[in-house]
Amino acid sequence: MCKKNVFLDQAGYLPEMTKKAVITTNAKSFVITDENGTVVFKGNTTEFGYDEASGDTVYIADFTELTKVGRYHISLNSGESSCLFEIRNDIYERCFDDVCKAYYYLRCGCGLEERYAGKFTHAPCHTEKALLWDDNSILLDVSGGWHDAGDYGRYSTAAACALGHLLYAYKFYPDVFQKQKLSIPESGDALPDMLAECKVELEWLMKMQREDGAVYHKATTAHHAPFVMPEDDTAQMFLLPPSSMATADAAAVFALASGIFREFDCDFADKLLTASLKSFGWLEHNPGFLFEHSDGCTTGGYGEMRDTDNRFWAAAELYSVTGQTRFRDMLESLVKEDINLTALGYADIAGLGALSYIMCTDENDALRRTFISNFIRNAEALAAISDKCGYGAALTPDMRGYHWGSNMTLLKNGMIFLIADRFEGKNRFEGYAAAQLHYLLGCNALGFSYVSGTGEHSIQHPHLRPTSADGIDECIPGMVSGGPNGRPSDEDARRLIPEGTPPMKCFADDELCYSLNEITIYWNSPAVFVLAHFNREK
Ligand code: 9MR
Ligand code: ZN
């Protein structure tokens, strides 16, 4: 295991990009050695000063000038050294494939076969029909899709959010996905593997749609399962009542997907568009906010206070795919509401609507220009936050930054940098996006790589039921942990983390600590987006 005072990206660095390690002892200089112990680089550190989020005074070792491909360690005079890291052009390829393949491991309603899952196999799970929560005479088939997270629930808004990130990753970086091989049952078919994986979730989400277009909020058991394999979670599955957020998000993501899948499979694209219009029709007839918290069901709530952002996203995607003015009219009227136009979900999600609109209009469109400048202003503000953090994380050192699932906010901020860059065209923010990835993969105050299987010191005990129950020491690779949480909700985290611990250090690699170390489909998805960017051919 690496020593705890030289922190860097344990996956490594792309040769042409900025490279910095963070040092937490007062070291004036550092050396980099290759695998044979030969010194290949010497440098002096600069003092960054006090870093509020970690509570440490930190020093920066900049080794950007080292561009030679290789495997290295950074060492200090004191004898302390970093984890192993590499410099290579395809440095993020494995991690990228892993975070994508994670969705296959989360598949529900089928078994995982050894030829695709290796040792992480399991028998088919959750194949029984689900009972309507408020009408026990009705049983419906909603099998399929992905488990949401460490629990075995399947939640519609979470699904749409993850799909939104994954499908936009595809729209931004199609070449990266077209050449990717994930070794899943559909590999070798006409669809890029990641789109085939998304299809699994889209088909499930279509099953969650009621005859009238409304979409059930979630399919879960009444309570979370104990730590058993998915096939051993045999409690009755329920379908909880539809919500307007789930309906709007489904309308949005079906429309988005129909545009992407049309190139490969017209029938599926038509099916998606029909489903989208059906949900949109329901929204038009039901303009009010609809969400009931169902008493007695203790699985994830995914409650929200309003649905205007979700409706905005739906209108934008349908405008993008059909060009019809009725969707644009709706979008224009919703834009006047107080919605955050750069928010990328899971709760506030209007930013995906703005992105949709930006990508289907041209520079003469005034609304488009406004949406772009929102992303740029947000990226500038986030860059200032990143500059204030010794580790370069664009997270404020408070509960807005280090909350439950802080790594999602980190990675969504990475997405905002890349979105701003793409439409501004000045490449001002790419380094900031990279810094978020470096933090995720080890350049943070605890020196954890928050992606299982990437780096010398990655998380190994996420709150993920199969990982706990499968009897295999190794964790399933490619799982993005929620990360530090300054105010953990679970007893175990509160027991393990002393009062007053700085927010960036409020973390434990412990499977019990669900508010620190769970995984979910919509924390992996912004990682897929950011990693896709750094896997482009240059
Ligand atoms: O990701 C969600 C986080 O933002 C909330 O603070 C938390 C408490 O409501 O719930 C998280 O979502 C969990 C969901 O409710 C159930 N599946 C696992 C999710 C990740 O922890
Ligand atoms: Zn299952």
Word description of this protein:
The chain is α+β, with helices and mostly antiparallel strands and 538 residues long. The protein has 2 domains: 1-89 and 395-538, Sandwich (Immunoglobulin-like); 93-302, Glycosyltransferase, CATH 1.50.10. The protein has 17 helices and 12 strands. The strands form 2 sheets. Strands 1-2-5-4-3-6-7 form a 7-stranded antiparallel β-sheet, with no helix packed on it. Strands 9-8-12-11-10 form a 5-stranded mixed β-sheet. A hairpin with a 4-residue loop joins β3 and β4 (39-51). The radius of gyration is 23 Å and the shape is globular. The model has no long low-confidence stretch (mean pLDDT 97). Ligand 9MR binds at residues 148-149, 151, 153, 300-302, 404-405, 514, 518, 520.
Low-confidence stretches: none
> What is the highest CATH level, the class of the largest domain?
Mainly Beta
Individual helix count: 17
Strand line-up in the sheet with most strands? 1-2-5-4-3-6-7
Which distinct ligands sit in these coordinates?
ligand 9MR, zinc ion
Structural class: alpha+beta
Tell me, rounded to a whole number, the average pLDDT: 97
**Alpha-carbon distance between the termini?**
33 Å
Percent strand equals 5-15%
How many beta-strand runs?
A: 12
Apparent shape: globular
Report the order of strands and helices: EEEEEEEHHEEEHHHEEHHHHHHHHHHHH
**What profile does the largest beta sheet have?**
7 strands, antiparallel
